[in-house]
Amino acid sequence: MMYVKGNHVHKGKASVEGGGNGASRLLDTSVVFIGAGNLATNLAKAMHAKGYRIRQVYSRTEASARTLAQAVGAAYTNDLAAVVNDAGLYISALKDDVLQELIPQMVNGREKALWVHTAGSLPMRVWYGAAERYGVLYPLQTFSKQREVDFAEIPIFIEARREADLRFLHELAGSLSHAVYEADSETRKALHLSAVFACNFTNHLYALAEALLKRYGLPFKVLLPLIDETARKVHELAPHEAQTGPAVRGDERVMELHEEMLADDERLGLFYSILSASIYDDAHPEPLADDAENEVGDDFNEKDINCGLPVIDIEDL
Amino acid sequence: MMYVKGNHVHKGKASVEGGGNGASRLLDTSVVFIGAGNLATNLAKAMHAKGYRIRQVYSRTEASARTLAQAVGAAYTNDLAAVVNDAGLYISALKDDVLQELIPQMVNGREKALWVHTAGSLPMRVWYGAAERYGVLYPLQTFSKQREVDFAEIPIFIEARREADLRFLHELAGSLSHAVYEADSETRKALHLSAVFACNFTNHLYALAEALLKRYGLPFKVLLPLIDETARKVHELAPHEAQTGPAVRGDERVMELHEEMLADDERLGLFYSILSASIYDDAHPEPLADDAENEVGDDFNEKDINCGLPVIDIEDL
Is the pTM of this model over 0.80? Predict the structure, then answer.
């Protein structure tokens, strides 16, 4: 059984259940990573840097398992049956569907350990019936193997079936980050969905801008100060207050010009019109009446019926 | 006539055409701002901080003119006829359509000065027929009155009708930023359009994420480390390489779950499905065949016919 502060301490055993002070006992926990992808790589490296003992890394792809294992001083395997049975903590960072499929095989023979997954949209209950002690440790961040991120700032959302395991995860997460929160599976799902908008979709807009610039022979890097400021700004202003650009101003001349420029690109043209309409609508919730901007308001309200899609084009899309 | 380094120097005159070294003569140029909005406020403050003499600020709104004028030690007016006639440089940062409408009245009696606008999507030729010396100074950044930005990093794109004025704008921009480029009106238009995607639309995605979190009683700030990292990442990786999330992985389970969560929000549901389809399509340009992922590929290729919109829903939008 794994050491948990002030609870179930098995004195006299070394490493996993350890003696000594809380910090060293926490660090004595032997950890196995199931998965060696972007998240596993970053989490394992952060834990290794804090002094955790990563005992073994499993990945279906031997090269991935080896690369991560070597970086964190662990053994590795690509055979699930060869995963050690006596580790204290198993951290599974597999793709959601793979994880669900492998749970019975993974946990079998290792039921006494604490099992956690790291996924935003997978409920904790996926472990139910297989593991006895289980939970979730979800760092809300975008990870790439090429970049090491500073875990200290990353919000980590934890959940566990048992109170003692929750306390353990709290300590573990707290040793990596100063932003640790308990969150149930429903909350975590909402966080993940919001993160898809704020990160994955945002990055895709960067990619679309990159493609646009390329068409004109311009380098993406000219946008970096703008991208940085756009991100910095929402530390001080709420996003809806920070909105700038032709759509929020209702600058129809510029929007029409931009739509003409995108006339030969169906996808970008569609994104341009629905995102602009959405920005305008958020900034002008009521239809304007009896003033000079009436025309603009009407125009957008009409578009709003189909979320900003020009009616005439829908069947041609 | 305004001083331009090494050209048309009228010695003996003070201030505007000045004597002395290049830097002090550049700074002796008397500058009038036409407009006191976000961009004018930030540019005027940056110039003031560098020692430029801002002589007067015009805005239709007296309070705006006064606020900016006081911040940069200038006079102010809300009467275009009261704008001084003998400044060296007039910087117009009005909304595009207002600018175009006011040009004849603005320039009248001030034809000898250098006139520049600061707009991304307005060609330089809007000045043609009114001013004799004109150009564009376009800082590629998002500005708010509430935040002062560091001009040193901001790419500034300049254009001028006359070679001597171009050199002057190069010096002026170069005194504010180390990233100064000459760009014609077509190029500037492309930059502006890309900026709308990378900044305005990105900020709107932040706002949509903010609204989503609010629905679940969660604070927007939990996303800030993720937003920062998403922006930082594209300094090192091209955006299409930096893409993460369920769409690029083709994780249908998560995408279906998210779409269910958005079932009661037509707008977010639409954005989710078209942006996910677009990410997937970019990452999987060829239809996959004869392997396990065939099904995913087909699914998305089918959606692609209408840019990811579910066919059945279009008429109900």
Answer: yes
Q: State whether B209 and A226 contact (CB < 8 Å).
A: no
With residues binned 3-state (H G I as helix, E B as strand, rest as coil), the percentages for chain A, rounded to 5, are 50, 15, 35
- Is B141 in contact with A205 (Cβ distance < 8 A)? no
- Provide the shortest C-alpha distance from residue B137 to chain A (in Å): 15
Query: Which tens digit of pLDDT belongs to each residue from A78-125?
Result: 999 999 999 999 999 998 889 999 999 999 999 999 999 999 999 999
What is this model's ipTM?
0.83
Which residue do the tokens 């970008």 mark? A268
% helix / strand / coil in chain B, to the nearest 5? 50, 15, 35
Q: Is B262 on the interface with A (CB under 8 A)?
A: yes
User: What is the crossing angle of helices B96-107 and A252-261, to 10°?
Assistant: 120
pLDDT tens, residue by residue, A304-317: 333 333 322 222 32
| DSSP strand pairing (B30-34 vs B53-58) | parallel
B209 contacts on A by Cβ (under 8 Å)? 194-195, 197-198, 239
B240: closest chain A residue by CA: A207
pLDDT reported for residue A95: 87
> Rounded to a whole number, what is the distance in Å from the CA of A119 to chain B's nearest CA?
10
User: In this complex, do A195 and B226 lie within 8 Å of one another by their Cβ atoms?
Assistant: yes
Q: Which residue from B144, B179, B231 is facing A237, i.e. has the nearest CB? A: B144
Cα dihedral A43, A49, A53, A56 sign: positive
The pLDDT tens digits for B251-268 are: 899 999 999 999 999 999
